[in-house]
């Protein structure tokens, strides 16, 4: 088997040997599996695709094999040319998140590094992947660079004699970081008005106190507070 691999990959004096080829492919496969695990661990959303994760592993491993084939005298330029060609080929899938594209490049970079580096320097690819993976995991866990998100949806019914433009302002100033009137609807044959707000509650505030004050301000009519998850808003 090793003799067959030697004959297949022996294109120049610096072509990799059979052992180096097998080791490089195994290392590439393991590292790209780690990339797949990282992607799954940091994924947010409702469109997770097992097929996409498998593709990440396959792309990285195949790039390694290609680089090993063309590696040798003058092969470096060919390898990087092929890598550039891969980068401009439109990925035949509608990517739901921009980070999906980034993970494709991470997988390809791992495949390229493992295929291009000598056997004794493969640890460099491992170290670089650990650094990149650590940064991605930290950003995901710490929710870094996240915009301010709406935390709750508030529905309030008031009678028509209440000036809702000003009635709730003192309460919102005390208990919320931000509030926005999203809709106004006439209900119960025009006898009442239903207001819908997007609000961000302060962490230090009491929800019970907020609801009590809203209940009084609305004239003891219906008040409904619903929690909103950030991903549901697409942010």
From TrEMBL:
- The reply to whether Transmembrane figures as a keyword in the UniProt entry is yes
Superkingdom of source: Bacteria
Keywords on record: Membrane, Transmembrane, Transmembrane helix
Keyword Ion transport on this protein?
A: no
**Pfam families found in the cross-reference section:** DUF4956
Segments passing through the bilayer = 20-39, 51-69, 75-91, 98-116, 122-140
**Name of the protein described by the UniProt record:** DUF4956 domain-containing protein
Q: Which organism is it from?
A: Oceaniferula flava
